[in-house]
Amino acid sequence: MRIAVVSLFPQMIHDALRIGVVGRALERGIFQIDCFDPRDYTDDIHRTVDDRPFGGGPGMVLKVEPMRSAVRDAVGVLPPGSRRVYLGADGRRFEQSMAREACAWPGLVLIAGRYEGVDERFIEQEIDEEWSIGDYVLSGGELPALVVIDAIARLMPGTLGSSESALQESFSDGLVDWPHYTRPQALEGRDVPAVLASGDHAAIARWRLQQALGRTWLRRPELLERRGMSDEERELLEEFKNERARQ
Ligand code: SAM
Questions:
Q1: Mean pLDDT by 10 residues, the chain (247 residues)
Q2: Ligand 1 mean position to 86 CA, how many Å?
Q3: In the chain, at which end, N or C, are there fewer CB atoms within 10 A of the end residue's CB?
């Protein structure tokens, strides 16, 4: 998959994507990143990309022309059918299901804003979707773009080894993850749940599902409502609740 990022700080994107499993995937060509800096599409000596807002008020607004030229160049290097996503605090909340969908797109252009944001006419004309990574305001769209790239890249075949499979992570099945443990088995009076050291794979799978159901019920009940449960899962959750009530 090819991903293009339109950003005033391309170095931030390149530097962050050198690290960890996503960095290795990039090195191995599982996906490709190209950055387009709107300043390269200006024709004045100061490489101006922003101007004062109409109507007054603090801050600056990114101008249409350099942003549009950068996006159009980015689209030009991507396969047909690629989508253009603007990162904005008031966009649609980015979720795992959107990462899964995007993973199947031929290409993706992520557009990072700065300052007060970008001239609305650019959004109206050049953007397919607006995504937010949460209800808080960051200084720029680069970190949100990196969040989106990381979430998508780990779903691409070959990014994660089988030992790190994305199939067993939070939200992959509409549930949050179960708790994880490693050595030592006993630590300061707290033992790892016995079933995990039992070698009984069916019992381990059952315990993990029960924990995932229980944690989702405790932490993200709306996810459980959205997902629904089988009869067996309902029983497991009841058992989890009873166990908790006894503690
Ligand atoms: N005036 C904007 C507002 O009140 O929503 C905030 C602009 S913010 C300082 C600069 C840029 O950061 C935005 O244009 C957007 O690209 C990015 N940004 C900030 N918070 C974000 C979030 N939660 N999700 C996605 N992008 C965000």
A1: 98 98 97 98 98 97 98 98 98 97 97 98 98 98 98 95 72 93 97 97 97 98 96 98 96
A2: 10
A3: C
Determine the CATH number of domain 170-246.
1.10.1270.20
Please report the atom of ligand 1 found closest to the CA of residue 132.
24
3-state DSSP helix/strand/coil % of the chain, to nearest 5:
45, 15, 40
Q: Which amino acid is at 224?
A: L
Q: Which of 9, 62, 87, 142 to mutate to test the pocket of ligand 1 (most atoms within 8 A of CB)?
A: 87
The pTM for the full model equals: 0.95
Distances (CA, A) of 228 to 95, 156, 185, 216, 242: 18, 27, 34, 12, 20
Q: For the structural domain made of 2-153, what CATH number should be given?
A: 3.40.1280.10
Token reading at 108: 């993706």
The domain spans of the chain are 2-153, 170-246
Ligand 1 neighbours by CB, cut-off 6 Å? 87-90, 112-114, 116-117, 132-134, 136-141, 144
* Cα 88 to ligand 1 centre (Å): 5
